[in-house]
Amino acid sequence: QTHIKNICCIGAGYVGGPTMAVIADKNPHVKVTVVDINAKRIAAWNDEDVSSLPVYEPGLSDVIQRARGRNLFFSTEVEQAIDQADMIFISVNTPTKTYGKGKGMAADLKYVELCARQIASVAKTDKIVVEKSTLPVRTAQAIKTILDQTGNGVNFQILSNPEFLAEGTAIKDLEEADRVLIGGEESEAGQKAIQALVNIYAAWLPKERILTTNVWSSELSKLTANAFLAQRVSSINSISELCEATGANVKEVAKAIGLDSRIGSKFLQASVGFGGSCFQKDILNLVYISKSLGLTEVADYWEQVIIMNDHQKRRFAEKIVQTLFNTVSDKKIAFLGWAFKKDTNDTRESAAIYVADQLMDEQAKIRVFDPKVSETQMQTDLNYLNTRSEAENEALLKATEDPYQACKDAHAIAILTEWDEFKTYDWKKVYEQMKKPAFIFDGRRILDRKELEAIGFRVYRIGEN
Ligand code: NAD
Ligand code: UDX
Known about the structure:
Layout: E1 6-10, H1 16-26, E2 31-35, H2 39-45, H3 60-67, E3 72-75, H4 78-84, E4 87-90, H5 110-122, E5 127-131, H6 139-148, E6 156-160, H7 170-175, E7 180-183, H8 188-202, E8 210-213, H9 215-246, H10 250-258, H11 279-292, H12 296-323, E9 332-336, H13 351-361, E10 365-369, H14 375-385, H15 390-396, E11 397-399, H16 403-407, E12 412-415, H17 427-432, E13 439-442, H18 449-455, E14 458-461
Parallel strand pairs: 1-2, 1-4, 2-3, 4-5, 5-6, 7-8, 9-10, 9-12, 10-11, 12-13, 13-14
Helix pairs in contact: 1-3, 5-6, 9-11, 9-12, 11-12, 12-13, 13-14
The structure holds nicotinamide-adenine-dinucleotide (NAD) and uridine-5'-diphosphate-xylopyranose.
Protein name: UDP-glucose 6-dehydrogenase
Domain UDP-glucose/GDP-mannose dehydrogenase C-terminal: 334-449
GO molecular function: UDP-glucose 6-dehydrogenase activity
């Protein structure tokens, strides 16, 4: 049928949670159940106190309060939700493989495959299965093969419906999406399935923003979109280094090129390097696919975006060491920000982790303040790198609840995330409590250089000298 009554989403993470919340909010007559094997996460989604939701996103708590308990439910009863649904979204994580063939490059599809097998074993009625996770091209074929093995006469249609939301602006991105992409089979059944999903989105988006394609175009478009976006950041970051070496200013260069409507002004913000769970993983995936197909030049071309990004993080840390008279051993360095961008509590692949790790190798003592990230999360991020023991990480890096405390007696401050509140601090007070000369390394270019220099700070900003 083309009118869906019951949706199940497997995976209650940064994508599954907000996406389903908006779908439920806009489709009050569709029952939406989000399931996850992580019971703690589900409990947090069900918490009365909406400030305890597992994902921090501006506007999310309002949407949750409107829809939760009405037609939006969070549960650990995966099989029951699959059984009842006529449409199932797979929104589980697809991280880079850490073992075996394709280690460090290919997407690990074990969680997606587990979902497909579970759907196959539970389903008693026809289902539309929607790939919401970002997947390598032609994954839909693998999912279909697994599903079709059930042998109990159930018909499955597989759609690809990649998610384009960015964290920190997820609700706005969902409510006012530039476009929604739906890939499906060209057969009649495939077109019917596409229509069913189009109807869900048409509840709030104009029809011309809902694009339909074949499955493979849809899968590849998602990887390509992230590769293009990340490429812009690496491109401007490469120019930031050139600016520092020549006396040009990256802000002026970005503005000058961005005003060309063919280039456009967005995503030209030089930074300490892009982070997040998507860019690196998806480009590595694109590189791996290209290599597997023998397309060496294509693979090398996109890999350079990652190489540039690693360089940008490394040279920021090196700049700190070099400026602090070539040693940071036993020096206190305050980090403002740990999340990979503002307005999110997500830290996956955050530049802060790598910069901290490099400074800790030089025996620096790091004190971090981030408005939304806990010390436990920071330690988990560092331990994941396996550079040193957990005890050593705990001894070298600590979080504080108060930014002024983090900066007190510090030799230097490094801005790693562009949280708005950092701009409003009493920088004179911060300066007075620091060791002199007091340095600021602005990896996000958010602070007013002239004002800081007038107070007495020595300032370095990415992309200018
Ligand atoms: P996430 O890690 O936040 O959430 C995934 C959830 O899936 C976890 O809570 C995990 O417990 C659950 N899960 C894993 N296997 C399961 C299973 N077999 N049954 C039930 N639950 C299971 O990940 P995310 O950031 O939400 O990303 C999900 C997908 O969406 C990825 O493929 C990612 O590439 C893609 N994506 C992410 C973003 C983003 O900004 N985070 C944007 C677009 C697309
Ligand atoms: C990205 C894509 O934007 C989104 O469409 C996709 O669905 C998931 O991946 P996300 O990773 O959540 O979203 O955030 P994004 O805003 O793209 O930022 C990624 C990283 O690039 C952040 O670390 C950000 O600080 C950095 N960035 C972004 C820059 O350094 N400069 C810029 O100009 C833009």
